[in-house]
Design a protein that fits this description.
Blueprint lengths: L12 H26 L9 H6 L1 H14 L2 E7 L4 E7 L8 E8 L7 E8 L2 E5 L8 E6 L4 E6 L6 E4 L8
Antiparallel strand pairs: 1-2, 1-8, 2-5, 3-4, 3-6, 4-5, 6-7
């Protein structure tokens, strides 16, 4: 004859296994919630609707660059913190200043907007150190804009050409 022993519930290993699984899930979810609220990813635009409406105006600037035959050769000197642009076109580029926007593709805090001033035949401006990652470059004059994507390895020289104008 077997003798049954009545052990208290807290001495049963199966009870602790059943309690441990949901307890670990709760602890991990609380930790993930704290991390999500403590860090800001900065990916979502606050005024996305307004930016969406402005796309047609921006496309007209791309078309102006294509029609004027504007091409820019950018030179980055990361050690000195200087960027320069040689801009060529079918006609004369009359702007005294152009704007170079370096837009980090994932972290808004790494974006830079540089004002390049005409010095001789080049436009020159100061450059802060770039964080690792991909950047979208926008070189903008009064009525035109050139756009390109700078890869993960930041180049010392880069050529910006008008977009093709084709969707997709």
């Amino acid at each position: 004859m077997t003798q049954e022993t009545n052990r208290p519930w807290y001495k049963e290993p199966m009870v602790w296994l059943v309690i441990a699984i949901p307890a670990v899930a709760v602890v991990l979810n609380v930790a993930q919630g704290i991390y999500a609220t403590a860090t800001f990813d900065g990916v979502v635009e606050d005024d996305y609707y307004k930016k969406g409406k402005a796309i047609n105006m921006v496309l007209a600037r791309d078309n102006n660059a294509r029609q004027a035959g504007i091409v820019a050769d950018l030179d980055f000197d990361y050690e000195k913190g200087v960027v320069s642009a040689l801009i060529t076109a079918k006609g004369d580029v009359a702007e005294k200043y152009v704007t170079l926007k370096l837009i980090h593709t994932t972290v808004k805090n790494h974006d830079q907007t540089l004002l390049l001033e005409k010095q001789g035949d080049r436009y020159v401006g100061s450059l802060e150190p770039l964080a690792p990652g991909r950047y979208e470059m926008h070189l903008e004059g009064g009525a035109w804009r050139l756009v390109a994507l700078m890869g993960l390895h930041h180049l010392n020289a880069f050529r910006l050409q008008p977009t093709s104008g084709k969707a997709g």
